[in-house]
């Protein structure tokens, strides 16, 4: 419109499918099916290109909503099943499995990637939601809402999206009260269990009861609790995501996680052992 181009939008949703390959070994798996170079230099994060995967042309996006090394593969409809079967076969030796949407929910909140309609809504500004980096305020580019945003920035945010972790064994789902120094200051928008750091994670907005702007000092000086089903649980405030805030993993750098990986692998083995024991006891009871 601004450039005077004659543009037509066509809905091709039913003609395309998408598979998301994510995880520490995603590069090795995808490399088995394409001749394209997938290293950081030739295929950096937040870029895309057309590549051939298992003989099919797909658009590969080097992005992630789960905070891991990975690619979204946007695939023509007729190629979806062949590409999926090829990935499944290539991933067998690496232990690749299917993951559902609840896994995406847990992984994304652990990484600090917000869901539209939960952590970020129409009534939240980029200033309040920690999304100023998406706005072109360092350029002369005008955009819808720029004047209002700049005014809010001068005044200061009266509410702020923050992250909490809870060590206690409690299920947080959203709408739980956030208490600061014994006083209600907001509520949780979204909560879930983070399986890598092994804590409950919650994101919500806090506001100063006195109506003044939210500062880093005010946030850091408080002692926090989260109320769930009538009980208060001590909570730790985080001004950055508690999981890989340096974005090492999306760049394929996993060396710093070796200790945590070993711990998680042991927990997985313990869980499998518990399940096997439960199945054995159930079988013995049924047989008896």
What's the short story on this structure?
The chain is an alpha+beta fold and 288 residues long.
Strand and helix layout:
Blueprint (H helix, E strand, L loop, with lengths): L15 E7 L3 H6 L16 E6 L2 E6 L8 E7 L3 H12 L9 H11 L34 H10 L3 E8 L10 E4 L2 E12 L4 E9 L8 H5 L3 E5 L2 E8 L19 H30 L1
Antiparallel strand pairs: 1-4, 2-3, 3-4, 5-8, 5-10, 6-7, 6-9, 7-8, 9-10
Describe the 3D structure.
A hairpin with a 2-residue loop joins β9 (224-228) and β10 (231-238). A 6-stranded antiparallel barrel has the order 5-8-7-6-9-10. The longest helix has 30 residues, at 258-287. It is an alpha+beta fold. The chain has helices at residues 26-31, 80-91, 101-111, 146-155, 216-220, 258-287, and strands spanning 16-22, 48-53, 56-61, 70-76, 159-166, 177-180, 183-194, 199-207, 224-228, 231-238. 24% of the residues are buried.
